[in-house]
Amino acid sequence: MRPSSSKTHRELIASRQPGFGMNGALYSRQDVFETDMEIFFNQHWIQVAVTADVDEPGDVFTVDIGKSSVLILRDDDEQIRAYRNVCRHRGARLKEAGKSTVGMLVCPYHQWTYDLDGSLKHASHMGKGFDPKCRSLIPVHCKVVGAHVLVCLGDNPPEDIKDLEAVMGPRFAPFDLANTRIAYELDYIENGNWKLVMENNRECYHCAGTHPELIVSYQSEDLGVSLEEMSDEARASYDAYQIRKAGIEADWANSGLLYETVEHLQDDAPTQFRTQRMIIAGAGESQTLDTQVACRKLLGNLTRRDLGDTHLWGNNAWAHVMSDHAMISWIIPLSPDRTLVRTKWLVHRDAVEGVDYDLQRLTEVWVATTQQDAALVAITHSGTQDPAFVPGPYSTYTEPYVDQFARWYTSRLAAHGV
């Protein structure tokens, strides 16, 4: 048998047994990583920001994605736009990664100057024959869904983004996420491949044993269970919860709140997403240690606290939106074994720290969960590189979406000729 180091990308994918994990080389090889970046982070829709990152006209958020760099900005008409962070003269970066506020975008090299609509407004000493209209910034396909800012760097962005917009538009509407501000943001580097980060996020098999803070707000019955292994007592508790759950969902429906699970998870669908309104345990209000709201000023014009957790995950992101705040995370791969996990906590624009909320209480659950997940990803990445590693089977009860992720990964590579 040829060693994994000499197999082609296609051979490594084909070696996966249905229902089992992927070959360890798919998490470590540089050539695989470069292909992943080109296909999944250039040709697909990915999240790169939240609307509050560019809150006012002239705000710029620069994001590096592999060799590419993108300027996310809000123009004078309050529209969010995206451009390649490349001067049309000799290619200099216009802005370093991070946030800034500008009147116009000025290249630091030769001071070519661009308006917020991307048009070139000033380029000295270029001669009378020079046409600035041909040197506007290169636009990037950009969509805003709730607070999510998504881009596609490819020339032909997948059209099924319209399905995400159609489903999540009305679900996010009551929270008025455009009218939020960032209460806290956290960048965390996980020492593992991006696929392992996403696999970890798509199952909660590990939650009870590793996330004591998060599990407080989760109903164990919603995390995937094996009914055939339940004791009579556990089954009675499960059945009782299903009755209570139906009552809560009926109440939400009577209030015009969407709660049904929607899955856009066909293996060949470029834009993957899954959403549901999850019941919060305990007081039923928010993902805090006491399950009560962390921010007394609710999002939008909401007056009701017990709205559950509108949960969404997509190609490279996941979000939890509750009556009082939203927690939105996304990833950007840095290398085969390093992944940036970027998280923002959003509150009502008018919420005041120390008055309406305590920052530690608002963030402590997901700060702890992020650190715990990082440790899990690191030990898994390390283990997949051990010569003794042989992929094991997924749990059909608690890991079906990990298996689906592997199928999607395979399908999308094939669609791009890999």
TrEMBL record:
Named cofactor requirement(s): Fe cation
Pfam families documented for this protein: Rieske, Ring_hydroxyl_A
Keyword tags: 2Fe-2S, Dioxygenase, Iron, Iron-sulfur, Metal-binding, Oxidoreductase
Keyword field contains Metal-binding: yes
Molecular function, one GO term: dioxygenase activity
Key word Transcription regulation present: no
Domain Rieske residues, every copy: 47-151
Protein name: Aromatic ring-hydroxylating dioxygenase subunit alpha
